[in-house]
Design goal:
Blueprint: H1 3-6, H2 10-32, H3 41-71, H4 83-112, H5 139-177, H6 179-182
């Protein structure tokens, strides 16, 4: 099979790297932003609002990516892969797609149950609308729901790190035996969009 048949199209490659960069940035910022002291409240609010904005952007890009993926078949996996490797690769990819939808939705639910308003691009005129599912709950129940989404958001972040490690480990493993396959998502290897 030729190297070109093994490569992804340009749009898939662009979406992959854009989302990879945004997700890694979000994981790093998400892990660090809780350490911003309350004495630097304006900085804290700005960072949190940008985190929420980028999360919503990831949700939109994930929808675009899923639609694009449904319309454009992925290149085939190499025939030499063992059955367990094929299953693991497919599972990791499925979990990544699930993560790219679930993480921003859980984050949106988290801020929808918060007492603090959220603004897209840190602009007060662009208030992030709250999801309506928890309207009417009393303070105690709303707090419980908020805590659930906060824990879920943190758990999904840990899952994302595990998936990233598995994904990179798989690529590094294949670099040793088949660079054509391992590098098929690299920008210089992308084929024209069909």
């Amino acid at each position: 099979m030729s190297a070109n048949n093994m490569s992804y199209n340009k749009m898939s490659v662009r979406l992959h790297w854009l989302m990879a960069g945004l997700i890694i940035l979000m994981l790093i910022v998400g892990a660090l932003m809780g350490y911003i002291p309350d004495s630097k409240l304006s900085l804290k609010i700005m960072v949190y609002n940008w985190h929420k904005t980028i999360g919503m952007l990831i949700l939109l890009l994930a929808i675009v990516r899923i639609i694009w993926r449904l319309m454009h078949k992925a290149p085939p996996l190499p025939s030499y892969l063992k059955t367990w490797e094929v299953h693991l690769a497919r599972l990791v990819h499925f979990l990544f797609y699930l993560f790219m939808i679930a993480m921003p939705l859980v984050g949106w639910a988290l801020v929808s149950t918060s007492k603090f308003p959220s603004f897209l691009f840190n602009v007060k005129a662009l208030k992030l609308p709250a999801l309506p599912f928890w309207q009417g709950l009393d303070k105690a129940h709303l707090h419980e729901v908020h805590e659930f989404f906060e824990e879920s958001h943190e758990t999904l972040a840990i899952l994302a790190v595990v998936l990233l490690v598995l994904h990179v480990a798989g690529a590094v493993k294949h670099m040793r035996s088949d660079q054509t396959y391992a590098l098929r998502m690299m920008p210089w290897r992308a084929k024209k969009d069909a």
